[in-house]
């Protein structure tokens, strides 16, 4: 039987669920079973925090999770005026299934209004590295419900 060839891969960082997880937001690749921490940065053009992931993703459903047991999905997809905005390359590499999609040709971005069975799906090339920038927004009437996510992506 032939020996398997070793590949030059970065070791996978695993989360220890027995301990309290650091308060941050994670990208969960549901179809593949990997959870990636997102790096928090300040956006240059606004006062909103921006979360960044750089690397490869596997095709399939993804979620943004928070909480000490990763039990809180962000954005909360069920509710009035909740969803995703896909900008840049995100229009091509992500799809929001079971949502009302409205493309703005003037702004060159897609607004995806979600409902309780909507899913964010990565459909890009799993061999390419991407830089993905995510901003989360609350309602402007004082409700803290993380109702909207703006996703901008570019190829690295």
Topology at a glance:
Elements: E1 26-29, E2 34-37, E3 39-42, E4 49-55, E5 60-66, E6 72-74, E7 83-88, H1 90-93, E8 94-97, E9 100-104, E10 109-113, E11 119-122, E12 130-137, E13 148-155
Parallel strand pairs: 7-13
Antiparallel strand pairs: 1-2, 1-5, 3-4, 4-12, 5-6, 5-11, 7-10, 8-11, 9-10, 12-13
Fold and architecture overview:
- The protein is mainly β and 156 residues long.
- The chain contains 1 helix and 13 strands.
- It has one helix at 90-93; strands at 26-29, 34-37, 39-42, 49-55, 60-66, 72-74, 83-88, 94-97, 100-104, 109-113, 119-122, 130-137, 148-155.
- The chain is globular and about 60 Å long.
- The mean pLDDT is 86.
Number of DSSP helices? 1
The largest sheet, given as strand count, sense and whether it forms a barrel, is: 7 strands, mixed
Percentage of β-strand residues? 35-45%
- Distance N to C terminus: 38 Å
Task: Write a short abstract of this structure.
By secondary structure, the chain is mainly β. The chain has one helix spanning 90-93; strands at residues 26-29, 34-37, 39-42, 49-55, 60-66, 72-74, 83-88, 94-97, 100-104, 109-113, 119-122, 130-137, 148-155. The strands form two sheets. It has a seven-stranded mixed sheet with strand order 3-4-12-13-7-10-9. Strands 1, 2, 5, 6, 8 and 11 form a six-stranded antiparallel sheet that branches.
């Amino acid at each position: 039987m032939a020996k398997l060839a070793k590949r030059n891969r970065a070791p996978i960082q695993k989360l220890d669920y027995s301990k309290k997880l650091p308060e941050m937001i994670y990208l969960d690749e549901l179809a593949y079973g990997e959870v990636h921490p997102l790096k928090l940065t300040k956006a240059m053009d606004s006062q909103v925090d921006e979360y960044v992931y750089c690397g490869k993703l596997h095709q399939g459903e993804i979620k943004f999770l928070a909480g000490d047991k990763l039990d809180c999905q962000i954005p909360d997809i069920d509710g009035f005026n909740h969803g995703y905005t896909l900008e840049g390359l995100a229009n091509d590499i992500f799809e929001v299934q079971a949502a009302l999609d409205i493309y703005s040709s003037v702004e060159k971005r897609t607004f995806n209004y979600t409902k309780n069975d909507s899913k964010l799906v990565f459909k890009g090339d799993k061999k390419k590295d991407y830089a993905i920038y995510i901003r989360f927004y609350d309602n402007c009437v004082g409700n803290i419900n993380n109702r909207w996510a703006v996703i901008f992506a570019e190829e690295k």
